[in-house]
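User: Show me an example of a complex going from sequences to structure tokens.

Assistant: Sure. Here are the input components:
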Amino acid sequence: GENVEQHPSTLSVQEGDSAVIKCTYSDSASNYFPWYKQELGKRPQLIIDIRSNVGEKKDQRIAVTLNKTAKHFSLHITETQPEDSAVYFCAASIGGGGADGLTFGKGTHLIIQP
Amino acid sequence: GAGVSQSPRYKVAKRGQDVALRCDPISGHVSLFWYQQALGQGPEFLTYFQNEAQLDKSGLPSDRFFAERPEGSVSTLKIQRTQQEDSAVYLCASSLAPGLAGGLGHNEQFFGPGTRLTVL
């Protein structure tokens, strides 16, 4: 089955700097890659997703890149703010997101230093 | 509209006790998923329903775990003879429909707040 590796497990950046979180996946059939933000004690919330027919997607301060050849995708957050502090999870799916379970990475605890 | 809801939010069970966890998906969502999230870990897939049909139960850790969605809406995850290793947050997610191409967020999985199960 699919295996998703996520790095780093903890990332501390100064407010205003950029943060990058990287994930690799094992199943070349995976075609949907969402990123979820989870604050302590709260539900995971989708912040951005990308499909395998696209190499990059941006939404304001957040961007995701996908390299299908290397089976690698990354989350980029620019101009970080205190409210960006949370745990971020990458995930992969072969069913497009609605037709099979997501395989999650172990998460990155992002800490924004004031 | 209302998001995914789950009940109870917290459940404490004695080892060996049976528990039932409920999920109310977003109205009209065809797909429903259950995940188990251990402390400090990412969610792990348990099972998937399309309407009332359980299409994938490959993630259920043992035959003590059983899930149903009899009318294609509300779902219940039942754990029999609970063990301490069952302690985790159980998350439910729903998605509008399977198999839609092109993105547009139609396949986004919306998560509920979870049920925190503690087995003593």
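The lines above are the inputs; the final block is the predicted structure for all two components together. The longest strand of chain B covers residues 88-95.
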